[in-house]
Write a structure and sequence with these properties.
Low-confidence stretches: none
Distance between the termini: 80 Å
Radius of gyration: 23 Å
Helix content: over 70%
Structural class: mainly alpha
Mean pLDDT: 83
Number of strands: 0
């Protein structure tokens, strides 16, 4: 018993530090995954809602996204991709980036070049092909 007490006294700082590091490495990924699945902030959601109300292609894309991911909001982890895709589709429908001045629509439109159709929801990819014909 004396040796356990002396080991604890000698190594307690390192043992506590190791426990904190292990706890953090186990809990941080869970917390990050939880945060990534939260809905986007209201300002971003309003922009996407504006696009869906003014563009049939963007509306179709949003509906396909909601069906494929079984949710009624856009997840934070998908926002950049969804914003880029919906802005690009809305521009094809005649939306100009100045139509919604309270949001940096240019940022979303620039991001559309970074995403391939393989990153889009499967239903939206099929819808895009049908609309382009």
């Amino acid at each position: 018993m004396q040796s356990l007490k002396s080991i604890w006294q000698e190594w307690r700082h390192l043992i506590v530090l190791g426990g904190v590091i292990v706890g953090f490495s186990l809990l941080f990924p869970l917390w990050a995954h939880y945060r990534a699945d939260l809905p986007v902030v209201p300002e971003y959601s309003r922009y996407l809602d504006y696009l869906t109300s003014h563009s049939p292609k963007a509306r179709g894309y949003a509906e396909a996204y909601y069906r494929e991911h079984s949710r009624d909001t856009v997840a934070s982890k998908h926002f950049e991709h969804v914003c880029a895709a919906m802005t690009g589709l809305a521009v094809e429908d005649g939306f100009t980036l100045k139509d919604y001045p309270d949001f940096p629509a240019e940022w979303c439109h620039e991001r559309s070049a970074y995403f391939s159709e393989f990153l889009q929801p499967q239903e939206a990819t099929q819808l895009n092909r049908q609309l382009r014909r």
